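In response to the reviewer comment on reproducibility (Comment 2.3), we provide here a single inverse folding case reported in full, input and output, so that an independent group could reproduce the run without further information from us. The structure tokens appear first.
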């Protein structure tokens, strides 16, 4: 069975970040459509699902790869912002974050040290803050 699948998939594009995202979106659409009794959302969900599988089984590897790169160009900055926000929230118990008044670079300092002088690691500007 596994061997059969491998042979079937040879020369085909396979999964990438874009198809994973599309499958996630289609599942959300289909679940929402059930909750909202919306046939439009349901159809949309299956169209997206169909398109994502079309990409997985596609033999036009170059084109699918280009699509994925385009998607990542949009997605990576969003993902990066999300991760840095999550990271800051995780560290908010032990650290405080300040923006450098000169270059806007975010600076992390340990919490509970009182009034401190911060030197920006980017532009070396010094500024005071209460941590
Ligand atoms: Zn700075």
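Designed residues, in position order:
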């Amino acid at each position: 069975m596994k061997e059969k699948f491998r042979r079937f998939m040879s020369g085909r594009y396979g999964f990438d970040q874009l198809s994973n995202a599309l499958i996630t979106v289609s599942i959300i659409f289909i679940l929402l459509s059930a909750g909202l009794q919306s046939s439009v959302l349901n159809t949309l969900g299956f169209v997206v699902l169909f398109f994502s599988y079309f990409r997985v089984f596609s033999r036009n590897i170059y084109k699918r790869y280009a699509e994925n790169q385009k998607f990542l160009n949009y997605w990576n900055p969003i993902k990066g912002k999300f991760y840095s926000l999550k990271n800051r929230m995780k560290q908010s118990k032990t650290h405080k974050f300040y923006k450098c008044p000169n270059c806007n670079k975010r600076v992390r300092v340990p919490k509970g040290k009182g009034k401190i002088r911060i030197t920006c690691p980017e532009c070396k500007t010094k500024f005071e803050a209460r941590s």
